Amino acid sequence: MHDARALIDMGAEAVRRLARRGYTLDLARLEDLQSRRNQGIRSADDLRAESKRVASEVQQTARQGGDISGLKERARELKDRIREVETEQEQVQDELRELLLTIPNLPDDAAPDGDSDADAVEIRRVGTPPVFPFEPKDHVDLGEATGILDFARATKLSGPRFAVSRGAGAALERALATLFLDLHTRRHGYVEHAVPYLVTRKTMTGTGQLPKFEEDLFKTGVADRELFLIPTAEVPLTNLYADEIIPPAELPLALTAHTPCFRSEAGSYGRDTRGLIRQHQFAKVEIVKIVDPETADTELETMVGHAEACLKELGLAYRVVRLAAGDTGFSAQLTYDIEVWIPSQNTYREISSVSSFGTFQARRANIRTRGEDGKPKPVATLNGSGLPIGRTLAALLEQCQQEDGSLVLPESLVPYLGFRRIKADGTPEA
Description:
40% of the residues lie in helices and 21% in strands. A hairpin with a 5-residue loop joins strand 14 and strand 15 (376-378). The two termini are 52 Å apart. The chain is elongated, with a radius of gyration of 27 Å. The protein has helices at residues 4-10, 12-19, 27-63, 69-102, 139-146, 151-158, 168-187, 201-206, 234-239, 296-314, 360-365, 389-399, 414-417; strands spanning 121-126, 149-150, 164-165, 191-192, 198-199, 219-222, 225-229, 244-245, 253-262, 281-291, 318-322, 334-342, 347-356, 367-370, 376-378, 380-388, 407-408, 421-422, 428-429. It is of the alpha+beta class.
């Protein structure tokens, strides 16, 4: 969430930057609400000061034996007027907050112009996409042929966009998650967390999922208690520190978690309906950092490297792109996508997004530290996928497939699996 005063002070510059992501800032409305809010605060303060003065006069006049009826009437009038002004002030404050909650983050000028993945700028390519002397199968056919993935029975259980993994497939998912967690905790310095998968509306609002993206969320509740299923571990990890002031000496905080993620994918039907690319439930290892704003740019580059390390460990070919301003998420200032090679589609597909949010999420969740002057100030937040298990599994199956239908897995997974090869019938083999 923005500081209204900061947006107003930026004026045309704020309008320009938000226009790059397709958002039209109503600066006049923002200025009007801010002015009415400030006027309401001043009026309430003036009325309370007068009320205090009149109350003092009542006491003094009473002690002197004077007539206090007029003063008492004035005191009642002031009390009623204070209630009116406070109610009006709260209404304006609520309207201002509702407006601010819908204004997306200002895109970084480093983000290229444009509003689609076609406008992204390629930063680098790593690894060579495999070339097969046969027609490569997609991960769905590979998974079903070996018996390690079962989409039909998942649909029977829950409907479309779910998957069941079994045998070596389930072991492979577990191995990937453990490998990624080990990389992030042992090599990259993140602290692993086990977090709730159900969170409150306030928590969802803190990281920017609400109010804008409510249709993309799964919601549940008991009696009058409302809870949302997390779309990513970013939500609980970042909000762990909501309404707190973090001592500067404790920054940066580096957090990671392996959780299920739940997304309705509203509006995306017809795209990626086959396989593991876009599902309602999937597992992911998330990495989050809470830092001093001065170090956010450096931390973003570091976190991209941490996500890349997972793909390098698996020997998967990928590329890194910087997203266009209009294709950047609501809360993000700047985002790098890491795209892994998918042989069956003969293209790179997004497997990780690593984003810097500046102080945007911290203001919404009220996460602060202290500046050199000792006064509280918002922190900066960053997060990224490190990595999603389903999409990694899809890329792994496709890049590691053999002509006989077997799969030869990366050496890095052997300590976690106890085998390196999955035969065409799904049987593990050392």
